[in-house]
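Colleagues,

Please find the record for the two-part complex below.
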Amino acid sequence: MIKVEKLSKHFGNVQAVDGISFEVREHENLILLGTSGCGKTTTLKMINRLIEPSAGKVFIDGKDIMEQSPELLRRGIGYVLQNNGLFPHYTVAQNIAVVPQLLKWDQNRTDKRIAELLEKLHLSKDYLNAYPSELSGGQQQRIGLARALVADPAVLLMDEPFGALDNVTRSKIHAEFKALDELKRKTIIMVTHDVQEAFELGDHICLMDKGKIVQDGTPAELLFNPKNDFVRNFLKEQRLQLEFKTIAPQPPEGGVFELRGKRLPAGANLWWMIEQLKFTEGESISILDHQDKKVGSMGFEDLMSTFYQYKKQQAQ
Amino acid sequence: MNEQQQTLWGFMQQQSDKLLTQTLQHIGLTFVSLLIAVLVGLPLGVFISRRRQFSGPVLGVAGVLQTVPSIALLGFMIPVLGIGPKPAIAALLLYALLPIIRNTFTGITGVDAAVKEAAVAMGMSKRQVLFKVELPLAMPVIFAGIRTATVITVGVATLASYIAAGGLGEFIFGGISLNNTNMILAGAIPAALLAILFDFLLARLQKLNVKKLRVVTAALPVLLILLSSFYLLPSAYGSKLKAGFTPEFMGRRDGNLGLISKYGLKIQTLVINDAVMYKAAFEKQLDVISGYSTDGRLKAYDLLVLDDDKHIFPPYYAAPIVREDALKKFPDLEKALNLLSGRINDSIMTALNYRTDYLHQSPERVARDFLDAQKLYKPARSGSAGLVRIGSKIFGEQYILASIYSMLIKGYTDYDASTKTGLGGTKICFDALTNNQIDFYPEYTGTGLLAILQPSVRIIDSVSTSKEATYNYVQRGFEEKYNIRWLKPIGFNNAYALMMRRKQAKELNIKTISNLKRYLDIN
């Protein structure tokens, strides 16, 4: 879907991005992770040509981005900024309608789409005529997301989208983000310096340093197969938590897990499962096969042993 | 008939036509200049916000223009653009430019970078980013700049009357020359009110919320054009010849008022400062001007004085006027000043003025050469017996006379002398004398009669027939009213006169003011 080939950018003598290549498949969520100054934001901005590359190529859907006019290219790519970048002189409705206006949609279609998005993002219609300064940080960020999604672009670029939010609001938005159908149909590249966020939201992480990609892989690969000490050290602080969050027990072929009569979402990880269990009652998670027949159960000890097995397997 | 006793309100009612015309001209001048300044300054501000490397030079040049004194700037404009509204608008425009350019630049560069980036990332073109995001967000700052420019322009526009562009300055500078406080206030108060009013209205516009600002942005050009058009409304009635009179001449009975009442002269008239009037006549911008009969530029520009065949210009014999207490304090002063009495006739004075006004020699040098030629010069003595302060009005002849007196005092008495030259006009000079800021200055009998004593028309008519009658009347009047003494006349008569280019006067066969009237009536 998106293919980046030997992309470079230098500002004067400073090499901000140094010949990096990666690929993002359709509907995949790629995270560009790294400390500030590692070149991740520059890389992101080259994809919608906010920054023109010094060398290298970017293809979206097989088309070279340099062969399109930057305005038209950008109208087809959603963009979310850290400080939301909402227009202070526009109301919420006008802010969301910027791209439809550029694309010359009729008013009816725009209104319908805005109403639909507000509902999905759990925002009241009362805000439509409010100005951004009248909203909370979390609401502003949701409006920013709505603005990026309104024209239903196939690609979404996000630059530290949740960076300016407090922890409580952020984890709430993370949950919404993962649950939003609209986003599951997008190919997303997101920049962050937050390891937790990267592991939580990413299908695929590029860890960057000094303009280069140090390792490109799934969260589990980064965690259990670090390419070098840089990767190891980068994850060291939160290793245990990340491991619990990365390891997801698999039900038998076609089956599911169930807790208190409710099915667990696909890909539920150990951390999540342990959080859900009520220990006082010795609760356990039921394992159902493809015919919904209970074939076993997992209590706290079983979950811990799964973790142990997994680690042992990785160590071999 | 003493104008001092008339109330300000009475004066404004009596002159309401003129006041209205001048106010409309003032508004027009202000907004024509402002309109052009916005049309030039706004794009320039946008340009330098795009190409930052030009911001230094552009703001620097605009800043330097701002520091040039307004009168000097008007002076620079005359050789290029002549006289009248064109140079005035150009000068005002240059003053208004800096705040507009600077605030546009500051406003646009001050827009939140994240907002600009978002606009670009949404797929807006450069034009769309400018008009939909940058300009609306910078508008409050740009507005503040336009407000500053407006107030500056209303103030500086009073000076436009120096170069025949009209406006409320006509009353202000006329009033200063004529010692008429009501006239000064009739110009100054409306000018101040205009500044306050426009500032207030623009402030109201600025406070409107962001939504309405878009309406304002559209309304502003319309408003500016509308107000600018005021300048075109009071177009003067046309005549074959164009006259330029000083503000002082315009308001005097022995000036334009006399020309209208005694001669019935109807001529298209511009108000202009005397510093540029002669040049304008020479360059054929004006045909008839009100000058002084001993002015050096008469000779320089080959102008012909029209004969005053109905005697409306009273004699203007020059003599030093001294406060009585100064004469007591400096007993030798009177004798020294009287050394000059009868020494300078009209043609000598014209020649001396020619040397300062046209050849640009210093008044001190001209004074020294004159005293040497008259064998009056003596080197300075001790200067230990006290300091005599000499005043002079702000033109060449007075500078020369002040220098001559200074040398005479230093050479013939033990007093030292200092000159306070450049006291604006009759009012400022005379007030300085009565308030003990200076001890004496050269004054003219006609000015003393008409501008200072201001007796009834009957008395004026009876005493202005001869040189002696005028002198005796002002001598008595000053002694009684102000305790100021007129010493012996210097000799020359620097009366008002109408003058034309000699060549044109000859072609049209005009020698007297009556000839001029007849010519204007026929054509």
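The first strand of chain B starts at residue 242 and ends at 245.

Comments are welcome before we finalize the supplementary table.
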